[in-house]
């Protein structure tokens, strides 16, 4: 299983290509529970889906290869193995979250209880501005 976190620092547009149904969660901060994952929009069907994202923290998991293309905006993508063999490093700095808040967000998507992980699916990330120069 591959876990993918996206840090969106301004309204952005992405294109996600998957071969399975995927749930995209937005991590919302609450005073009582810290960061809580809440489903963002409808389930994403297999194929290519273009998404408009507001600033915030987002997360999805996939069991198969995926391609993510950042079309516009400010999106930082971080992907981790789906098991707990190696601890996660601190997340990259974000304009929207301080270090404590970012650490709490990582804890909200920690991968416990899913059993051992087999093959780690590939994730390719492309930023549309890379080839525009």
SSE topology:
Elements: E1 2-18, E2 25-30, E3 34-39, E4 47-53, E5 56-62, E6 66-81, H1 99-108, E7 123-127
Give keywords.
single chain, 133 residues, mainly beta, seven-stranded mixed β-sheet, 1 helix, 7 strands, globular
Walk me through this protein's architecture.
The protein has 133 residues and is mainly β. Helix content is 8%, strand content 48%. The protein contains one helix and seven strands, in the order E-E-E-E-E-E-H-E. The chain has one helix at 99-108; strands at 2-18, 25-30, 34-39, 47-53, 56-62, 66-81, 123-127. Strands 1, 2, 3, 4, 5, 6 and 7 form a seven-stranded mixed sheet that branches. Strand 6, helix 1 (99-108) and strand 7 form a beta-alpha-beta unit. It starts with a strand and ends in a 6-residue tail after the last strand.
What would you say about this model in short?
With 133 residues, the protein is mainly beta.
